[in-house]
Amino acid sequence: MKTVRIISDLHIGVDDGxxxxxxxxxxxxRFCREWLERGxxxxxxxxxxxEPKAEPEPKPEQKGERRLVVAGDGFECWESxxxxxxxxxxxxxxxxxxxxxFLTETPGITLINGNHDAILRTGSEDFGAVEELKLDxxxxxxxxxxxxxxDGANSEKKCGCFGRMVAWCVGNGERxxxxxxDVNLEALAEICGGTRDPKQSEEHARKVAQxxxxxxxxxxxxxxxxxxxxxxxxxxxSSGKCRDRNGSLDVVDVxxxxxxxxxxxxxxxxxxxxxxxxxxxxxxxxxxxxxxxESADAPRITVHIPC
Length: 307
Hints:
Layout: E1 2-7, H1 25-38, H2 60-63, E2 65-71, H3 85-95, H4 97-105, E3 109-112, H5 119-122, E4 132-137, E5 140-145, H6 161-176, H7 188-191, H8 198-212, E6 216-219, E7 225-229, E8 235-239, E9 242-243, E10 248-256, E11 260-269, E12 275-285, E13 287-288, E14 295-296, E15 302-304
Parallel strand pairs: 1-2, 2-3, 5-6, 6-8
Antiparallel strand pairs: 1-10, 4-5, 7-8, 9-10, 10-11, 11-12, 12-15, 13-14
Helix pairs in contact: 3-4
């Protein structure tokens, strides 16, 4: 089995009023590292009695592959009061050295740049960030990006000038007036004609899937966690955000085997790993047909949308 955990929109800043990352750094690092190393449900140690007989070390393919993807806007380089995006990134690195090193240097973590941290890929230093990530797991084709490419106010092709102006204003408002100003402006999408519009992102993802033949498309950017399954079985997920001041984080888990692809979006406690809420899930299966040894992707679709 191969597994991808997607998180996004952490907006880690320089620890000022415009910094949206309010999780405990050490708890967050432990949360991510433990998942990379052993998953969410490690076997408990026996309380008493003789030590169990040691099991043979599993082969690499039995252990499965795990990858943690930060799907954009991991770092806040637009709202910072540190100056240019490159200066902001240097300040974040200086103010949060352990967290910065963990995300940029740990094997198994892939950084996708968003609009707020495009400097990860375009700046003078190479952090290994990518604009998009394409994976082939057992024939399942996965596509991951931040998703701002569909947003006219934030697209790099249009310079993102309007988005940067709004972010600068919001950042100053958070520092001077209210640290939760951006949370109270979630309706900005309607005012600004499509900024961070979930429907627009989903339409863009659907077109990408249709044009390129992907089985799964995962975006960040909208700050809205969800799972949708379209006709034909293609799955789309949005990875939500770092939930403000309550020690929780939206995550999307994608599990692939030779015969199935499963996706679930949840809200988890960073301290305990506990699932606090399930936003949605979907499963797609490959079913072997009888007769001449053929197999085809005949999706058996299971969708869970909680009330």
